[in-house]
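Problem: given the chain below (279 residues), write out its structure.
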Amino acid sequence: MESIIGTITEIWRYPVKSMRGERVETVAIGPQGLLGDRALALREVGSGHLVSAKKWPRMLELRATYASPPGWPLDPAAIVIELPDGPPTAADDPALEGLLSHFLGFEVRLERSPGSGRNEIGIDPATIFGGLAAAEVMPGLAPGTVLPPTFGAPRGTFFDAAPIHLIASATLAHLGRLLGESAPATRRFRPNLLVQSTDESAGFVEDGWIGHALQIGEIEINQLIPTLRCVMTTHAQEELARDLAILRTAARHHQAFIGVTGKIKGRGQIAVGDAIALH
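Solution.
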């Protein structure tokens, strides 16, 4: 039996891993995620790790968008990267890697293909949870446990965990109430889909999705798991100031789980306004 749990109210695509992305009205979707999402990533030349804003907050001062709608195969020339100072630069511009290396303060290269192997994403274990000890966020850990300096992306991808991430408006509203303020901005959590909940008073509504699948037209999103939040939610970006209270509140009230990730079955097009059913 299916029940409508909301509609798509925002769609976000991030052409380059850990940079700010773009909001779109409609997008092609398939098992590899939204077309054009995390198509490129930066890699630290020294360590070989993928560059993440989890470790390098200045990544969120950069924005990547498509100058023209992406197709397949993806053309890096269609991606434009905006630095805080200077004109937008196409991803295939030979000068771009030098500009990005200078901006970040270490040498990077811009990669198009994640390959078929395991890609390690660099973190700073001391700051990954915004100053909270790992055991405060992950109760199963022994006090004093130090996390490793990297974690692996799913093979053949630049994703942290899965090809799609969703968050419900009811969850953001609930988190806002716990914070004693308005709902945090969607951009703090970098979802692909913001779901306008049918019940805005439902708390951490995604808890009720676990063990089920979501249906959007012919597209099924399954194997849903809670999304463990980290310091990314606290970083400053555009007009949003650094805010450690968001992560601390999520950890205190919900073990830092906000939203869900999942796998995608089927191919098609989704758009803002599409209904989402739970089954």
